[in-house]
Amino acid sequence: MAHHRFDASALAPQVAAPHSPANSKAVHEFKHVAPSVAYIGACTGAKLDDLRMAASVLKGRKSRVKLLVAPASLRDQQAAEQEGTLGILLDAGAELLANSCGMCAGYGENLLPNGAVAVSTTARNFKGRMGSASAQVYLASPYTVAASAVAGRIADPRELLA
Is pTM beyond 0.85 here? Predict the structure, then answer.
């Protein structure tokens, strides 16, 4: 069995380009991409810890793009509300959506229209999954999605967390 050793702190955050989670590169490879939507949602990307990650970037800042937040569960939403995390997200300009699969599974009224570009915490970005087949969905961590919302382009969250 082969073993690989590396310094994880030296690795750049990763972003998956359309239309596959396997289409991943370092965040700086996508600095030219300007999403119109930042989506922090679904079971894989909007748990309480994920909401806290996004809030740590968004605290005291405003989103430059449409920021949608769909907490993974009512329990996580209530905990985020009680501890002030949800307030930080809303103060940054987030629109609170229902706890559900929502956009990740192609449900709801906030689906991506033709030509939309989104950066999302969901686990999949297959063509047409979150709306129009012409929409482009980039997958990233809650830190990166929040940083991208603030910057108005896909951004390295380390620049805002330093």
Answer: yes
